Amino acid sequence: MIFFDDVSKIYTPTQAALRNVTLRILPKEFLSIVGASGAGKTTLLKLLIAEERPSEGKIFLDGVEVTSLGYRDLPQVRRRIGTVFQDYKLLSGKTAYENVAFAMEAAGAKDSEIRDSVPEVLDLVGLVEKANNFPHELSGGEKQRVAIARALVNRPEVIMADEPTGNLDPVTSWEIIKLLVKINEMGTTVILATHNKEIVDDLGRRVVTLEGGKIIMDEEKGKYVI
């Protein structure tokens, strides 16, 4: 379980990204975090992987206080959380296979493990035939699928997707969302930060709405009401 305990991120007395956020995310849950630009969605995700530290409050992942971990201990937590970004963040000089393999190499995986796991995860996202293509040879949707495969390959318990459809057309966006739903149904917790009302409304899953850094709504089967 993920638990944000009265978390605030304050930059100046007049500028706060999050204020007094208390939030529980259950294992295997699919949660959408919505809100206008600047509402605090990305900050919340960054705090979970300790890319930023809260000004106040604590964050826990299965009882481990993420906010108290030192630099050396953070990789252990971050390997449990895969991250997908709006702009893909692929390495341009590496093929789809190599981009995914690189995530395993960075985690210290053996060559034999990489040879077994990378084709499996590329098959899951429907890109086996594109394994040897470089990012510039892929469509936006294919790039995002590679990014999802990279996030999945170390078998994390949680996938965080920060506006993963922001650069995609509506049809491709739905393909990516369906893939995230499939991953969730396989047992992985999915946290989706988005401002796409149509996607959130059609998902019919739990929705947490942020406004001005505060949670103003938390519904089990919510809609995007802003």
CATH fold category name of the largest domain: Rossmann fold
Backbone CA Rg = 17 Å
Number of helices: 7
Structural class: alpha/beta
Largest sheet: number of strands, sense, barrel closure: 6 strands, mixed
SSE order: EEEHEEHEHHHEHEHEE
Unreliable stretches: none
Distance between the termini: 28 Å
Extended strand count: 10
| Beta-strand content estimate | 25-35%
CATH architecture of the largest domain: 3-Layer(aba) Sandwich
Helix content, binned percent: 25-40%
- Overall structural domain count: 2
InterPro entries: AAA+_ATPase, ABC_transporter-like_ATP-bd, ABC_transporter-like_CS, ABC_transpr_LolD-like, Cell_div_FtsE, P-loop_NTPase
Protein name: Cell division ATP-binding protein FtsE
Membrane topology: Peripheral membrane protein
Subcellular location: Cell membrane
